[in-house]
Write a structure and sequence with these properties.
Layout lengths: L1 H25 L1 H8 L2 H22 L2 H8 L5 H24 L2 H7 L6 H16 L1 H9 L3 H32 L4 H4 L8 H17 L1 H4 L8 H35 L4 H15 L3 H20 L6 H24 L2 H4 L18 H17 L1 H5 L3 H26 L1 H26 L6 H21 L6 H27 L3 H9 L1
Helix pairs in contact: 1-9, 1-15, 3-7, 3-13, 3-14, 4-8, 4-13, 5-7, 6-7, 7-11, 9-11, 13-14, 13-20, 13-21, 15-16, 15-18, 16-18, 16-22, 16-23, 18-21, 20-21, 22-23
């Protein structure tokens, strides 16, 4: 249990920063959906989806390679070689993207604002050269500084967006000629969202001074070759993952059966509802930050596989609680979109449970993926991700014209479900771990049944308070079932152990 406690302790720090930071960032959703109509919010979504794609290309798996090769090479040599590589390619990629700038803006239906694309490239470039300094903090077991810097980035971004859109914009629209109003340019519009993030990324990189001040531009050709052999398949994995996560936004705009304005509207509605899956995404990302270095460091332990199986079981249980916490209380969560001013966002509420379930499958896949990282079979991981990407592309391509963003949600579910199953089957051949998959499927299925019961109750329970009361009851039932089946495992967790001692 010592290793698992260490993972839990680090995950708490990563979790606090991720949860609090995501919460602050998530407050932007009701602000942006209130200020901007769905078509404008769709433009924001498209640009940040582009940033996600570029992040994968710019970093090309170097973060994971850094963790892997620290086990067999000198840390300074790995860090300096990796940093030199990222610095050079970041400048190169940025220049290459600037050449077809107008064409890139046209692909996103933003021909009038190519400067938005420039700002997004700047954000990606700054975030890329901060990757290894942040990885160094994780490798050295310094989650506190990591957490504080991540929070600083989010807080700066939030404050700047609030400044431009909640202070300067209203002052300009009032026509009072105030100083604050003079700072706002209506021609920039949604561009202030990207200006804020660009400034936040710059400040964050400067705050990482202690982590990059000792960097020396050295290049070990042999080590670099080994890093690339290991990381390039991860680039395919990452790129395929971004296809699965964000390509539906691009395809909605280009495959939607209607006008460009209607397509942008559908994209904005879908993107806003996609944000409601944030709770489970927060947990998955938090877990991943602590788990990846933990899995590598404990791989040589004799009980490593048993620990991986136990961690997976606890992970699935936690995901099911996150799922129920959202889908049983959608009447509350829907207010995190600007529905009071733009009620059309409610048209996409029905996709949230599908997206939440797909995120559970994605989280399980992240856990399973440790087998190909530990066995240096990252090319197999790339193949699995490509299969998922093909599923995503095919379903979206053929069904978006027929059923709109329903297709996007179903494609996400099919993609991550397939990747999860394939990774489990292949992984058990190369690196067998005694996962309790029957328990996992049972818990997920039980959570889904509770949601269906709650959905059926809507025809009987007319008052919102009645639906909320039933939601609390159903979560309580799930908790009691879990405690009965997993008592021996759960009582070893300090918080639950204290509760048992009291009662």
């Amino acid at each position: 249990m010592g290793g698992i406690r260490q993972l839990a302790k680090q995950t708490i720090w990563y979790g606090l920063s991720n949860i609090f930071g995501r919460f602050i960032n998530y407050l932007l959703t009701p602000i942006l959906t209130y200020i901007f109509s769905p078509d404008k919010f769709g433009d924001i979504s498209i640009l940040f989806a582009s940033a996600a794609f570029l992040n994968i290309i710019f970093t090309y798996g170097m973060e994971t390679s850094y963790f892997r090769f620290n086990l067999i090479e000198d840390e300074k040599k790995v860090y300096n070689t990796g940093f030199t590589s990222l610095l050079f390619t970041t400048v190169l990629f940025s220049i290459l993207l600037m050449i077809p700038l107008q064409e890139l803006a046209g692909l996103m239906k933003l021909e009038e604002h190519p400067e938005f694309v420039v700002w997004v490239i700047g954000i990606v470039a700054l975030d890329t050269i901060a990757v290894l300094p942040f990885s160094k903090l994780r490798h050295e077991g310094r989650p506190r500084k990591f957490a504080l810097l991540k929070l600083a980035n989010i807080l700066i971004n939030f404050v700047l967006i609030a400044f431009f859109l909640l202070l300067c914009k209203p002052a300009f629209e009032n026509g009072s000629g105030s100083f604050w109003g003079s700072l706002y340019d209506p021609g920039v519009g949604i561009g202030y969202v990207f200006i804020a993030q660009l400034l936040a990324s710059l400040v964050t990189f400067l705050l990482l001074f202690k982590e990059w001040k000792h960097f020396r531009p050295t290049f070990d050709k042999k080590l670099f070759t080994e890093l690339m052999i290991y990381s390039l398949p991860l680039l395919v994995v990452g790129f395929g993952g971004m296809i699965n996560e964000t390509i539906d936004r691009f395809m909605l705009v280009n495959r939607f059966n209607g006008t460009v304005e209607a397509a942008k509207m559908a994209n904005g509605i879908y993107s806003a509802n996609y944000k409601l899956a944030v709770l489970i995404v927060i947990f998955i990302q938090t877990f991943k930050m602590g788990a990846e270095p933990f899995f590598f460091k404990n791989a040589a332990n004799s009980n490593a596989k048993e620990n991986y199986a136990r961690i997976m079981n606890l992970f699935v249980i936690a995901c099911c609680f996150c799922f129920l916490g959202v889908v049983l209380f959608l009447d509350i969560w829907k207010h995190f979109m600007g529905v009071s001013r733009h009620p059309e966002y409610l048209q996409g509420l029905f996709v949230v449970p599908i997206l939440m379930l797909s995120k559970i499958f994605l989280g399980i896949y992240y856990n399973l993926s440790i087998w190909y990282k530990l066995t240096n079979k990252t090319s197999t991981g790339a193949v699995i991700t490509i299969i998922g990407a093909v599923i995503t592309l095919l379903i979206n391509y053929f069904f978006i014209p027929m059923i709109g963003f329903w297709a996007c949600a179903l494609a996400t579910l099919a993609c991550y479900g397939s990747m999860m199953v394939i990774s489990y089957i292949v992984g058990q051949v190369h690196y067998p771990v005694p996962y309790q998959w029957k328990h996992h499927l049972g818990y997920i299925g039980f959570a889904a049944v509770l949601f269906l019961i709650h959905t059926a109750s809507r025809k009987v329970l007319a008052q919102e308070w009645q639906l909320h009361a039933e939601g609390i009851l159903l979560i309580g039932i799930f908790f009691l079932v879990i405690m009965k089946r997993e008592k021996q495992e759960l009582v070893q967790i300090p918080l639950i152990k204290k509760l048992y001692r009291k009662h």
